[in-house]
Every structure is written in C-alpha cells, then in structure tokens.
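[09:14] KT: can someone run the structure on this one? pasting the chain below
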Amino acid sequence: MFFYVYILESKLNRELYIGYTHNLIRRVKEHNLGLNFSTKPYKPWTLIYYEACMDRRDAKRREAYLKTNQGGRLLKRRLKEYLYGRRFA
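[09:31] RB: done, structure tokens below
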C-alpha cells in the first residue's frame, strides 16, 4: 500500500493545500465535495502534484516538511514551470 503526499490548487483563488492520504482519488473527491472544513470555502480543487511513499510515517514527515518555509521554496522550484506558466494562461 502506498501513502501519498499531495498538493491541491484551488480553482477559486489559486491557493495551495498540502496533505497526505492512503487513498488519493477518494481524498481529492472529499475535498471537492466540501467534506474537509479547511478546504471547503476554496473548492473546487485540482490535483497538481503528488509523491508516493511506502511508509505512512515517511509521507507524514514529507507533508510536514513541505509545509515549512524551506519546503515551500522547494515546491516553488519543483513546480516552477507550472506555477510561473499559470500567471500567463
């Protein structure tokens, strides 16, 4: 079984949300149905990035890292073309 660290982008205001789950498809559907209190006001969401881990603790640690300032900088470098390109779309 894989555990996924994922990044969603709000189509409403382009905010990013970082989370982890063992069922990626179900979790994205839950966000878009408004079943998550913190993401409900900003739906609909689009999955823009994910990573797979074999261990839940690795996924949880990676999620926590990506939510830090250093992790945010890494994400901006990792998704540079996507994040830069959307400004001109």
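[09:33] KT: thanks! The mean pLDDT is 94.
[09:34] RB: yep, looked fine to me
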